[in-house]
Amino acid sequence: MSAETIPVRRGEPRRLPNLKWIAGMGAALAAWGAAYSQLVAVSEWLVSLLPVDRASHLGAALAFFFYDTPKVLMLLTLIVFAMGVVRSYFSPEKTRALLAGRREGLGNVMAAGLGVLTPFCSCSAVPLFIGFVSAGIPLGVTFSFLIAAPMVNEVALALLFGLVGWKVALTYLGFGLGVAIIAGWVIGRLRLEGWLQDWVKDIRTGGGIVVPDERMSFVDRVRLGIETVRDIVGRVWIWIIVGIAAGALIHGYVPADLMVRIMGADAWWSVPAAVLIGIPMYTNAAGIVPVVEALLGKGAALGTTLAFMMSVIALSLPEMIILRKVLTLRLIAVFVGVVGTGILAVGFLFNMLFH
Amino acid sequence: MKDVKVLGPGCKRCEAVEAMVRTAAAKLGIGVKVEKVTDYAEIAKFGIASTPGIVIDGKVVHAGGLPKEGALEAWLRA
């Protein structure tokens, strides 16, 4: 990252603050790395302060908790910051302009990818949906975006990476995008535009309104990254601690053979069961990943566990209630059916491949 | 008197934006009439795809997230 590549605004001395910010970021990264490398030592030291035998179950669970909690929070902070900076280059309005006029197929692929990169919050889901559809973006392409945006998010990826490993994180990324692309494409093929709420069909803005691009300096983007960290990590840290505590309990007290029987690869019905159980469950990735990690450790099959996680995040009742304002019940049913089938397929495929 | 509309279904950020508008206007000594638009169909008519949005005298100036304070003051002064 060199200072030359940063757009310099005329009449403003940008160079000096940039250097200061770059130096600050470098120092923060170095501090981060130093702290990260000491996590094991610190967690062991903390356990040694407590009146518990390190070799006991409780000692192991505590060491796990003291190590995993700061590790995950640190990884999350770094990844959320990076995504915050990356996302400052995208906006739903720019994404809409990129997707308008795209055919299905390539449009679905682009929409799913942009769903990951575009800043999105669920309270914005309805305006975004209407904004996309009324600009002439095909319904199926819009759905690819709306499925990928919440399901493949940096919190889920950071936690999977930190707790389960990069292979599973990449797998989740790939297959999450796959489900979003294919489910959106199928919904597009079904030609369900007539199943939108009537008032939505009447809005045709043509996407003509262009929001003036707010120019951002490098410092603005870094500030936005920090703000994103404050917002997201500030919101999810409690879930992570609760999730890791729940995971520690599963580690310590749930017998492994029980989990193998219920969620193992041989129990074929466990995949649909995991998807069904996941729908009414509403938590974010932060709470679910530590539990997922513990389930995997106890012998639950990878496919079943991933299906459970995708279902919890992608098919949530509150989001459906929000979308009810723009979609008819029939269309919501199709949406759940198609996405659910995609998640089932991922679950079965993984249980078969990694048996 | 500027006519300012804050577009958003009523999430935390929408309220924060409304407060920002009032604070900035008071600071600049500009009279504003702030109206919150929460109806999805009404919001959609302005053509934005992300909330909160800001409309000043009928013109969309911002969509998605909190605006920068400096930018907000510039829009109000314009």
Spell out the blueprint of helices and strands.
The complex is a heterodimer of chains A (355) and B (78).
Chain A: H1 15-37, H2 39-49, H3 57-87, H4 92-99, H5 106-117, H6 125-134, H7 139-151, H8 154-164, H9 166-189, H10 198-202, H11 218-253, H12 256-263, H13 270-278, H14 285-297, H15 302-314, H16 317-323, H17 329-353
Helix pairs in contact in A: 2-3, 3-8, 3-11, 5-7, 5-9, 6-7, 7-9, 8-9, 8-14, 9-17, 11-14, 13-15, 14-15, 15-17
Chain B: E1 2-7, H1 12-28, E2 32-37, H2 40-45, E3 53-56, E4 59-63, H3 69-77
Parallel strand pairs in B: 1-2
Antiparallel strand pairs in B: 1-3, 3-4
Helix pairs in contact in B: 1-3
Please outline what is shown here:
Chain A has 355 residues and is mainly α. Chain A has helices at 15-37, 39-49, 57-87, 92-99, 106-117, 125-134, 139-151, 154-164, 166-189, 198-202, 218-253, 256-263, 270-278, 285-297, 302-314, 317-323, 329-353. The A-B interface holds A 91-93, 95-96, 119-121, 123-124, 126-128, 130-132, 134-135, 199-200, 203, 205, 207-209, 211-212, 214, 220, 325-326 and B 7-9, 11, 13, 40-41, 43-51, 53, 60-65, 67-68, 71.
